Amino acid sequence: MDYVSIRVSTLRGDQKIDFNAYIKINEKMILYLRRGDSFEGDRLQRLKEKKLKKMYILTDEEITYRNYLQKNIEVAYDNTSNKDIQTRAEIIQGAQQNNTEEVFENPENVESYNYAKDAAGKYVSFIMSNAQALTSVMKLENTDKNIAHHGVTVSTLAIALAQKLGISDPKKTQLLTLGALLHDYGHHHSSLNLSQPLDKMNPQDLANWKKHPQTGAEKVQDKKHFDQAVINIIAQHEETSNGTGPLGLREKDTDPLAVIVSSANAMDRLITFEGVPQAEAAKKLMIEHVGKHPLQHIQFLNEIMKGL
What sequence ranges are listed for the domain HD-GYP (predicted)? Predict the structure, then answer.
């Protein structure tokens, strides 16, 4: 039988699946979830704990799977649906993570990029127009330190920060979100252990870490479908206001959207990769990153985190 891989991040919510889902163990396909079951709750948590990124379905059930995805996402974005906000947030977060991974794995695919871009615009509306959306997405812990999940969290914080800053232009917020989702593309093929504070990295690891923004930007610079603002965010997201980032750019010389992503990224790096509790991250950012990010950004991020 022929199988095709699907991403675990797309299998969220309480909608029953109408296909069989398999996991691969020692080259054997083991039925994990039967047609008629759903991926909510413990099942999803177990898969995440196993750091399983892909499952498999029979090739002839691919259209059924695509229909499941479409229906899932439509219901999640429908403000009049009877789904609770946490379920909707899980589905939408999973879809954003999937879109990010699709572009990471195949950046030359114009269709994947444009799909992620369109979905980024919808995500802005979801976060900005639903009072509990931000809290619901931020509840989803990145247990396997996945860089695509990290990208979704950074994009979520960047949207919330842009809202506080009064940035409402749809084109700007869309590109901000897409750039935030894709900002760590330079880590996609890296074996660097990101779960260590930068000041604890050995010289070689730190040198490799410093290269990741430029590596990511260089790999997509020749892709005509990539927006320049997105490339700028990938290249400049580790730059700081005082010029201590990898490229040595100061705030005035950095793309304004990249400055927002840099602040949001610094916050989630503390939470996801350095294990700082959400409630303490803003305070740590304020004390240890003083001068690296606009003070207003840090104050707003503090307000955002307190509101979760």
Answer: 125-308
Count Cβ atoms below 10 Å from residue 18 Cβ, excluding itself: 13
Kindly tell me the burial class for residue 196, based on how many C-beta atoms sit within 10 Å of its own C-beta (0-12, 13-18, 19 or more): middle
pTM value is 0.96
| Contact assessment for residue 78 and residue 15, using Cβ atoms and an 8 Å cutoff | no
User: Both 153 and 92 in a single domain?
Assistant: yes
Q: Which of 22, 51, 82 is the last residue of a domain?
A: 82
CB within 8 Å of 226: residues ≥ 6 apart: 107, 113, 220
Tell me, yes or no, whether 76 and 116 share the same domain: no
**Structural domain for 140, as ranges:** 84-306
Residue listed under structure tokens 């980024």: 120
Find, among 144, 151, 296, the residue nearest to 237 by Cα: 151
In this prediction, residues 103-124 reach a mean pLDDT of 98
Number of separate domains in the chain: 2
